[in-house]
């Protein structure tokens, strides 16, 4: 019989459609990714094409060659210049679309991916994420920062060269507000962080754990929205990604490379979205919020039911997904 599972953190209900559940191996990517060259002359992110990107904010150089770059997005969602002017006219609300939109180019190689990169490269990439995250919040116009990665056309990428993005906006999205409110209410009721309690539950249950180390837990949520929806939680309570230590950063790099390698080899490199969900640096001491990383392979499609209800139908069992990933090869 199908199950309706509730995710306390997101407040979302998910239908686990066990009657039409697929085997984990059925979700392997059917897209034929043709072998790409390590350099593409027309790609603005490849070495030699630096003039094709806007302003550069940071560069990591090794042996005279750049390894990673941070540049402004050529087609930004928000403008870097201007002030967030606001107006209210009846039922209409307006805020000027100003903020920041960065691109973090993660490798000079066009044909690589985080799953195939060296662990130390992921440490560098995470360091750039953290640096730009903190710098973005130093802008007084910024109310919320989202770091994300779109891997593959199905996940929304427009340039097939390894990169992540940062968008800083002058408002706080409703989704983030709602999750903070939920976490605050749980803390008021129990005196415990909801995410810390979730960690304890998952560690005790074990069935949905994929990777566990000293500092992080990678697991499939009990009410995963879709097949192989994965969370990476820091074990130490911390409200903001800005508070990650060097030791934790290295451990997170291990988790990220390991789970993406399992996606790459076990699911044949599916398209996926990666998002870092975090409070602001100035809220780092909050007892009720807890930053984490979310990964969602694009292995199913949303349709009318999802749009009409705000719910998801997951055609796989989170426990089976976790078991499959535990056994999957990781480089």
How is this structure best described in words?
- This protein is 26% helix and 25% strand.
- It is α+β, with helices and mostly antiparallel strands.
- It has one domain (3-327): HIT family, subunit A, CATH 3.30.428.
- Strands 3-4-7-9-8-13-14-12-11-10 form a ten-stranded antiparallel sheet, with helices on both faces. Strands 1-2-15 form a three-stranded mixed sheet.
- A hairpin with a 4-residue loop joins β1 (3-7) and β2 (12-16).
- α1 crosses α4.
- The two termini are 37 Å apart.
Question: What secondary-structure arrangement, pairings included, does this model have?
Answer:
Elements: E1 3-7, E2 12-16, E3 56-62, E4 65-72, E5 86-89, E6 92-95, E7 100-105, H1 119-137, E8 144-151, E9 163-169, H2 174-190, H3 194-205, E10 209-212, E11 216-219, E12 230-234, H4 246-266, E13 272-277, E14 292-297, H5 304-309, E15 312-314, H6 318-327
Parallel strand pairs: 2-15
Antiparallel strand pairs: 1-2, 3-4, 4-7, 5-6, 7-9, 8-9, 8-13, 10-11, 11-12, 12-14, 13-14
